[in-house]
Design brief:
The structure holds two protein chains of two kinds. Chain A is built from 23 helices and 24 strands. By secondary structure, chain A is an alpha/beta fold. Chain A folds into three domains: about 170 residues, FAD/NAD(P)-binding domain; about 140 residues, 3-Layer(bba) Sandwich (FAD/NAD(P)-binding domain), CATH 3.50.50.60; about 160 residues, no CATH class. Classes of the chains: A alpha/beta, B alpha/beta.
Chain lengths: ~625, ~350
């Protein structure tokens, strides 16, 4: 042994990293498991469709907007739409947010790819001349069904897309206000899907019976009908004042389709989700001068995304919390306001929160109109309950979370219809999985055998200290997307509020991305334990120390590794008997460890993971 | 060297010291040395030691000669004073600086070529004089900067990269330092921060001449089989005499040890050096025994490391010369030049 002997008590001391400790240690990390490095790419891991985010951000930095668009299009089908509206689970996950104040503006960079791309239609797949003879019915033309159509059309499937509305898009078209998403973007991206060929749209045709549809002899049916029913609020006065009380999602649809273009001057929006935020901002544009949002919960617990709340408040819309609606007040059949009971949170022994009345006098808020945005529900009145398709105790269809198949073979569910209301990117992810299942089903194969993702790991080394990625770390703060003047936006419900990044701002924002997909790959047999990587690492990720159980090891690294969500990268035993431990948590992927390593034990390797899509399955399997 | 600046982002949980600084506040410019050079690890250890000692960076001066090792002060303590002198002349510049301003902490950084070849005379004399400083030789057995010729510390028989053996006897700097009366003598290894950092801390808290010989492999010219200054050789032949814990005023002195297993030494400033004995019963306060131990173990092919010798109640150059308490640099002209009458009086007294 090369290190000197240390007495027992010293050996276990955390003050002296590098001394072996007794007890079971961690096994070396197996980086061949695709999940290991995938998890390090926080944004891609968090994205339901697993979009290779850093890959497209680098393409934008290189002004390769069309390529960036295609990378997105393959993964998430609606880059222009999502670049404006995505719920962006990637951003709270983004590593940058653990290193400084704010994550990379991943979502708005997606829009940049869509805004500045060239004509990409020639690069999109086309349906083969000869169809494969299989017909699939897609019920509801929201993002879930459209994704299934996009994935299956290039394989020669004939897809029949039904929707009760006159146009496709589902809630993307009927709910999301135009000031967040111009209709032209919807038309463009739906056009790319229709352009593949093999897709028949039967719009304006509501499916009234699944039994009837099955009788038409489809090879498979996909149900993407969403969660179309807005929850109502049954308190005294509801019926009497009905003329001025509107269900949020119905009202938004009426605005989107041009049936409603005015609202009273004083408006109360009930509810704290994103629908409530869209309702209040829309009301503000249709004549609402005093628009108030009222929520039962606390401000922090509201379901709406933080940026949606900010946008609403920025438009002069106050949000009141801890108020429970008790009654609608009315006079001569006309709504006069809402009566609220004041509540406060109380926690029971299990830490569960209950809202209890404070006993203070009730609060009456006068208003002309109320928009009820307190939730959405699924409804399947058109699915017969005696055809072998089982529903659970909450009257939701029983759907397999991997294959998306119901208990009736050949009938699949996705999007909000499958597991309750979510968002567009989840609908897309479901659509991809369902398309794989439908393809397997139609080929008579086992739908539980899922095709693995395509994984590639390639060294980025170009020269002694040169990498094929830009490893310098920008210290810039997050850039704000420029906004259109409020004097215009508050008077025109279809004037888009966000203008999008210009090319220069976009470039600067791309530089904030840490390239988390360029992985630090360690080869134990090459390491001479010279400490060069430890000394250079700006964020103290790397430690050479004795092995030990994970939780104990985490506490005695050069900097504490107290984010258990992030893995420790552990090497095999080195010459001195120690191991290399790297805390992945806040690694900047700056490559300095690899630059300072004299033996190439550290290398920076780009990890590219492409999820399997039905479209990419080998032709021989068709 | 690297092409990018070291990012300023740091670990959000990075500890701060009594001055509110993190370890990273003691860094310097990004190193231009070869990747993996032992010298960079020593810089890392110096940074760690200064951080742990809560040293105000502007109260420290780093001085060096010429060589890869002597370049390193640029790569640590970016907010301290620095002087990059001529080859082998760091000790005299440091002595002068120390005379002029006794209030700073002096850190001399040198190489084996800088100190044992061209600068051997200066090395010996500044230790003799007891200049209050920490003198670190980053010892790789070669002239790294001029492409790897053997230096005066290369062991007889050690092989160069082409297999040629060194015919000459080696200068053993710790032995020489003991002979010169240095009051703090240690040896360590760049690849062992757990040993090196406490040694640097103790040396900085020592009054008098503190010398650390730190073996520091040159990955470019002296890290092959046959070298006696390679990572592998040093790890295989390392014979530590003790393990040091340093307790400064702020730290709580913890844990009791069995009689005879530890030696505690209180330095003039109250800092406590707790030496845990390893193996043989080694007494770091006895310079004669230390010299004998060094000689016999080195003959046996071992690399002796640890705190080899310390004299707690040491005095320094200023004490010996009875200079004023105030730094000379703080005195004004009238105080420094008392005038012709005073000179005449001194001359008269000497007649
Ligand atoms: C106000 C509001 C704002 C939102 N904003 C966002 C946002 O910014 N970002 C985001 O990611 N998500 C947002 N969402 C959620 C998002 O719109 C949905 O999660 C998503 O559209 C669900 O897609 P889907 O494919 O499951 O079905 P849907 O988009 O709900 O589409 C279902 C379609 O099926 C049709 N249909 C239903 N039943 C039948 C039938 N029997 N026969 C024929 N057709 C039928 C409907 O007409 C509809 O067109 C918002 C939702 C609302 C209500
Ligand atoms: C007066 C003088 N003589 C010779 C040289 C050439 N020279 C530059 S560095 C060096 C040796 C440095 O060796 P060392 O101190 O061991 O430093 P290392 O590079 O190994 O860290 C020599 C001989 C010089 N710069 N100046
Ligand atoms: S820094 Fe870039 S790669 Fe890393 S999580 Fe954020 S967007 Fe993704
Ligand atoms: S890439 Fe290497 S040096 Fe850079 S932060 Fe990650 S572990 Fe540290
Ligand atoms: S030549 Fe040797 S001593 Fe100089 S920087 Fe390179 S490895 Fe270090
Ligand atoms: Mg040298």
């Amino acid at each position: 042994m090369a290190t000197f002997d240390v007495p027992e008590d010293e050996a276990a001391s955390s003050d002296h990293p590098g001394r072996a400790i007794s007890g079971p240690g961690m096994a070396p990390t197996d980086v061949r498991d695709p999940n290991y490095f995938h998890k390090v790419v926080d944004c891609q891991w968090a994205c339901p469709a697993h979009t290779p985010v850093p890959e497209y951000i680098r393409l934008i930095a290189q002004e390769r907007y069309s390529d960036a668009y295609i990378v997105n299009w393959r993964s998430n089908v609606f880059p222009g739409i999502l670049g404006r509206t995505c719920d962006r689970p990637c951003e709270p996950a983004c590593r940058r947010g653990r290193v400084e104040a704010e994550p990379v503006a991943i979502c708005r960079l997606k829009r940049v790819a869509a805004d500045y791309k060239d004509d990409i239609e020639g690069r999109l797949p086309r349906a083969p001349e000869a169809p494969n003879g299989k017909r699939i019915a897609l019920v509801g033309a929201g993002p879930a069904s459209l994704t299934v159509a996009r994935d299956l059309a290039p394989l020669g499937y004939e897809l029949v897309l039904f929707d009760g509305e006159a146009k496709g898009g589902g809630m993307i078209r009927s709910q999301i206000p135009r000031f967040r998403l111009p209709e032209s973007v919807i038309d463009e991206e739906l056009g790319y899907i229709y352009g593949i060929g093999g897709i028949e749209t039967r719009y304006g045709e509501r499916v009234e019976s699944l039994k009837g549809l099955l009788a038409e002899g489809f090879d498979a049916v996909f149900v993407g009908t969403g969660a179309p029913r807005g929850r109502d609020l049954d308190v005294p006065g509801r019926r009497e004042a009905a003329d001025n009380i509107h269900i949020g999602i119905d009202w938004l649809a009426n605005v989107a389709f041009g049936h409603v273009d005015r609202i009273g001057e004083r408006v109360i929006v009930l509810g704290g989700g994103n629908t409530a935020m869209d309702c209040c901002r829309t009301a503000r544009r249709l004549g609402g001068k005093e628009v108030h949002v009222v929520v039962r919960s606390g401000f922090e617990e509201m379901k709406a995304s933080p940026w949606e709340k900010e946008d609403a408040m920025h438009e002069g819309i106050p949000i009141h919390n801890f108020l429970t609606p008790k009654a609608f007040t009315h006079e001569a059949g006309r709504l006069t306001g809402v009566l609220f009971e004041k509540v406060a949170p109380q926690f029971d022994d299990n830490g569960r929160r209950r809202l209890v009345p404070t006993g203070e006098p009730d609060l009456h808020m006068p208003c002309d109109d109320v928009l009820v945005a307190i939730g959405q529900e699924n409804a399947f009145p058109w699915i017969e309950r005696d055809i072998g398709l089982d529903f659970d105790e909450w009257d939701m269809p029983k759907v397999d979370s991997t294959t998306h198949q119901s208990t009736l073979p050949g009938v699949f569910f996705g999007g909000d219809a499958a597991f309750g209301p979510k968002n567009i990117i989840w609908a897309v992810a479901h659509g991809h999985e369902a398309a794989i299942s439908i393809d397997l089903h139609c080929r008579g194969e086992d739908i539980s055998q899922r095709p693995p993702p395509l994984v590639n790991l390639a060294s980025q080394k170009m020269g002694l200290h040169e990498w094929s990625y830009d490893n310098a770390i920008s210290e810039d703060q997050r850039y704000q997307v420029p906004w259109r003047d409020q004097a215009i936006t508050l008077n025109d419900v279809s004037a888009e509020v966000e203008l999008g990044f210009d090319r220069d701002l976009a470039f600067r924002e791309t530089q904030r991305c840490l390239n988390c997909d360029v992985q630090t790959v360690f080869t134990d047999s090459l390491c001479i334990e010279c400490d060069a990587c430890v000394d250079i690492c700006p964020v103290d990720c790397i430690t050479f120390t004795g092995n030990g159980p994970e939780m104990e090891l985490r506490q005695r690294l050069n900097a504490p590794a107290d984010n258990p969500e992030q893995d420790l990268y552990v090497s095999g035993e080195l010459k001195t008997g120690r191991i290399m431990v790297k805390d992945e948590d806040i690694c900047l992927h700056c490559g300095l460890c690899a630059e300072r390593c004299p033996t190439g034990a550290w290398d920076m390797q780009k990890f590219l993971l492409d999820m399997a899509h039905a479209t990419d399955q080998p032709a021989c399997r068709r | 060297m690297t092409h990018i600046a070291k990012p300023r982002f740091r670990h959000p949980k990075l500890p701060v010291n009594a001055l509110g600084f993190t370890r990273r506040d003691y860094e310097g410019a990004v190193s231009t040395l070869c990747a993996g050079c032992g010298h960079d690890s020593i810089s890392g250890a110096i940074i760690q030691a200064c951080f742990e000692l809560d040293l105000p960076p502007h109260r420290l001066a780093k001085l060096s000669g010429i060589g890869c090792s002597s370049k390193t002060p640029t790569y640590f303590l970016g907010n301290s004073h620095g002087f990059n002198s001529v080859h082998g002349r760091m000790p005299s510049v440091l002595t002068g600086a120390n005379l002029a301003n006794r209030d700073l902490v002096y850190l001399g950084v040198s190489g084996d070529g800088d100190s044992a070849s061209i600068g051997l005379g200066q090395f010996a004399h500044c230790l003799r004089r007891g200049v209050d400083m920490v003198y670190i030789v980053e010892n790789n057995g070669v002239y790294g900067l001029t492409k790897g010729q053997f230096s005066a510390t290369a062991d007889q028989g050690a092989k160069d990269r082409r297999g040629g053996a060194n015919p000459d006897a080696a200068v053993d700097l710790p032995s020489l330092a003991l002979l010169m009366g240095a009051t703090f003598v240690a040896r360590s290894f760049s690849g062992d921060k757990a040993q090196l950092v406490p040694l640097i801390k103790a040396a900085m808290r020592h009054r008098g001449a503190a010398f650390i010989d730190c073996i520091s492999p040159c990955v470019a010219f002296n890290n092959h089989a046959g070298s006696t200054k390679s990572f592998d050789f040093v790890r295989e032949h390392n014979e530590a005499v003790n393990f040091l814990d340093v307790f400064t005023g702020r730290d709580e002195i913890t844990a009791d040890y069995e009689e005879g297993t530890v030696q505690e030494i209180v330095q003039h400033d109250g800092s406590v050096l707790r030496l845990k004995k390893l193996g043989a019963d080694y007494d770091a306060t006895d310079p004669v025994a230390a010299l004998a131990y060094l000689q016999s173990h080195q003959t046996a092919g071992e690399v002796v490391t640890g705190l080899i010798h310390v004299k707690a109640a040491a005095e320094d150059l200023h004490a010996r010369m009875e200079t004023v308490e105030a730094p000379l640099s703080s005195l004004d002209e009238a105080e420094l030049c008392p005038g012709a009458d005073a000179l005449a009086a001194i001359n008269a007294a000497l007649r």
